UniProtKB/TrEMBL annotation:
Keywords: Folate biosynthesis, Isomerase, Lyase. One of its GO terms (molecular function) is dihydroneopterin aldolase activity. Its EC number is 4.1.2.25. It catalyses: 7,8-dihydroneopterin = 6-hydroxymethyl-7,8-dihydropterin + glycolaldehyde; 7,8-dihydroneopterin = 7,8-dihydromonapterin. This is 7,8-dihydroneopterin aldolase. Residues 4-114 form the Dihydroneopterin aldolase/epimerase domain. It holds the Pfam family FolB. SMART domains: FolB (SM00905). Catalyzes the conversion of 7,8-dihydroneopterin to 6-hydroxymethyl-7,8-dihydropterin. InterPro entries: Dihydroneopterin_aldolase (IPR006156), FolB_dom (IPR006157), GTP-CH-I_C/QueF (IPR043133).
Length: 120
């Protein structure tokens, strides 16, 4: 299985458990690793035969605008489910960082893997 990568994608959203966080937009930083077979697209030089990282990046940013969760866990889980359903992604790893949430840390966040990763 091959992988399509999206690294350090900035996503603006309302997120957080504290009252003050419900009134502001914060920027999350996402890394996505998306399983697919790139061989058909490579053989035909055809964007329609692979995962379009530009289209997926736009969808992730729209997702951030559409939702306002409290937990980064909820954002990650719901986004992973949305991307897998809408783009037919069999397996993905999603790492979500919330910079500045803990001043002593560069970033905090979660990393999840969902779906089945085939061996071939
Ligand atoms: N595991 C989590 N811990 C915390 C979260 C979270 O989403 N998941 N969120 C907060 C606050 O919103 C924090 O980011 C504000 O600085 C605290 N802990």
């Amino acid at each position: 299985m091959d992988l399509v990568l999206i690294e350090a994608l900035k996503v603006d959203t309302v997120i957080g458990v504290y009252d003050w966080e419900r009134t502001i937009t914060q920027t999350l930083v996402l890394d996505l690793t998306l399983a697919t077979d790139i061989r058909p697209a490579a053989a035909n030089d055809d964007i329609a035969m692979t995962l379009d990282y530009a289209a997926i990046s736009e969808r992730v940013q729209a997702f951030g605008t559409e939702h306002s969760f409290e937990l980064v866990e909820t954002f990650a889980e719901r986004l992973a489910d949305t991307l897998r359903r809408e783009f037919g992604i069999p397996w993905l790893r999603l790492t979500l960082r919330k910079p500045g949430a803990v001043p002593a840390a560069t970033a905090v966040g979660v990393s999840i893997e969902r779906g089945e990763r085939s061996a071939s």
